Each structure stands twice: as structure tokens, then as C-alpha cells.
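re: ur msg from earlier - yeah i can do the 2-oxoglutaric acid complex, just paste it... oh wait u already did. ok heres what im feeding in:
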Amino acid sequence: MSCLSAADWALFDAQGFLRIGQVADTATLEALRTRIDDIMLGKANVDYRRMVMQLDSTDGVYESAGPQSHGFKGATFGYRKIEQLEADPLFLAYMKLPVFEEVARRFYGNIAIAPFRAMFMNKPARRGTFLPLHQDRWRALDRDPLITVYTALDQATPANGCVEVIAGSHHTVLNPAHANGFLTADMAAKFDDDPSRVQLTLEAGEVVLMHNWTIHGSGVNVTDSPRRAFSVCLMDAATMSRRYNRQAARCVLFEARE
Ligand SMILES: O=C(O)CCC(=O)C(=O)O
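and the outut:
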């Protein structure tokens, strides 16, 4: 039986994003939060050499966040981003939930589907880095990943730097020349007072499906609690990286079906 209806998909197609509610039970959500905290503190039984870990900026400026590179960078809750969480069994089990396979197959059909990235995004308490408006696309890939499954691990609000999206912006790539889909400052300024700008205030555990071309960004966290999220971008497992001249996938999440 399908978890999502034709009406859900019609709304997704119109908006470029869709809230699908809570997917994990409370215990699973708490386990994911504990696991990511343990990973940040260096206490988790994971291969840290496989994980891309980036420290948050100290001034909120995107360009001054730490390098995005493999390996542990100290026991701190001050990480901005941790990638390759498919290497952690708990996060991997969550990514494999049937509802996410249904979502992935809606975009890719019965082929093998892989995570392009399985990423923790953090706005540490009283910290965070301003994330400028962008679309999730990478010129180095020979085809665009189409769908991201975004799970709020904590409640997300404007005060703690929730994601903002431009509804209906997913039909065109605005700045195809940029390697990572970022808008120019002039392009971004046009959306300052756009009525389609939506702040994604989310409950802890709430899941949002995002078309990869939906323009989005996020602010900083002025509260005393972290705003943690888990974002999984799914792609055709055959996607090639032109930079490395090999398949971009590190693993297959959903095998091709007969
Ligand atoms: O959580 C955030 O602040 C941004 C996440 C994001 O850009 C993404 O998941 O693609």
C-alpha cells in the first residue's frame, strides 16, 4: 500500500516540497539524536576516516566555516555538517524505511538507487552558519539527483535557523554555471520579499521531501538549543562523477527490482 497519495504528489509537484509528517517513532528519533551527538563527541563506533566532518563557523559567515574533509575534528557539538552517515547502521536503517523507497521509486523507477549524500546539518546552540540560497545540484555529476528527504531531528523554527524555501522554484536551474547550485547575490536578492518564500517550521521528527532544484537556504540559531537535521539526497546509482571519472555512489540503498 502506498504511503503517499496522488494528491500528495500533486502538491509536491506544485510546491517543489512536501511535508509528510513524522516517520520515525519517538524512540528511533531519540536514538538518532543520541547517535549524532556521540559521533560529534568521538564516542561512536563508526569509521571516522570515512566521514566528511565540517566545523561550524564562529561568525555565522558561510565562507568561514571549517574545511569539508574526511575525519574527526575534535569532541565538540560545534559541527556544522557531517556526511556519509550511511556508514552508521542506525542512520542507514532509517534511510531504508519503506516510505523512503516509495519516494525514491517515484523519481527513479525500478533502478538501483543510492544516496548521493546522507548528511547531518547542525545549527549549534547560539551558533550556526548562514546558508545562502541555492539549489542542490552539482555540475560534476553527469545527471542531477532529484529528491532529498529531510528529517528535522529537533523542532525547527525561524529563531533556530530553520530552512527557508522558495515554493514553486524547482522548474528551472537558476545559475547553471555554479559548481554547487548557489545563486548569485543579485539572484538571491530578488527573493528577499518574495511571497513564495516559506519558512519551514517543523516539529521534531517531521519529514519534508524536497525537489533538489527547490531554492532553499537557512539562517543562524539564536536559541540555547541545537537545531539538528538529517538530510538524504537520493540519486540514480549509475550517476557518474566527472571529476573522478567513476560512479558517484558509495553504496546502493535500494536495489533494482525485477
Ligand atoms: O538544514 C539546513 O540548514 C540546510 C539543509 C540543506 O541545504 C539540504 O538539506 O540540502
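cool cool. The mean pLDDT is 97. ping me if u need the other ligands too
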